[in-house]
Specification:
alpha+beta; Lipocalin; eight-stranded antiparallel beta barrel; 2 helices; 9 strands; about 20% helix; globular
Length: about 140
């Protein structure tokens, strides 16, 4: 019986991993910053050249000295859809998880992330005096 239970667990774990891979398929590739709003202000000029690269469950934000990398998890069953970026220990966000929401629209990914607190944003906005970041990336078709 123990052997059958183990086999069932292996099959379930493989199914969960496949579901996770399917959920991340739309994210795969290279994305270039199109809009950046932090705390109610447009910061696109400050973020020019930023790229988001997603491969599997790993991401890299390519942005010079402020580059970062880590893992991405999503929950597309939530409304709005949830995303979490877990950063590496030595990056700008020093091993924190940035909770957020996401949406795909017209070959773009819209991310609203909380850069300082564990509370997940509920709207795609980054008002003044908040640690929210509203970032819109356009898929790079020149990969």
């Amino acid at each position: 019986m123990l052997h059958g239970t183990f086999a069932t667990l292996v099959v379930l774990a493989a199914a969960v991993a496949a579901d996770s891979d399917d959920e991340l398929k739309p994210f795969q590739g290279v994305w270039r910053i199109a809009e950046a709003n932090l705390a109610g202000r447009d910061h696109l000029d400050d973020f020019q050249g930023m790229k988001l690269i997603i491969c599997g469950k790993n991401y890299v934000i390519d942005f010079g000295d402020n580059s970062d990398k880590g893992t991405i998890t999503v929950d597309p069953t939530k409304t709005p859809q949830h995303i979490d970026l877990t950063t590496r220990a030595d990056g700008p966000f020093k091993g924190r998880t940035l909770p957020g929401i996401y949406e795909f629209r017209d070959n773009r990914i819209i991310l609203c992330l909380n850069s300082e607190k564990p509370e997940r944003p509920t709207k795609f906005e980054a008002p003044e005096k908040t640690p929210l970041m509203l970032l819109i990336f356009r898929r790079d078709t020149k990969q």
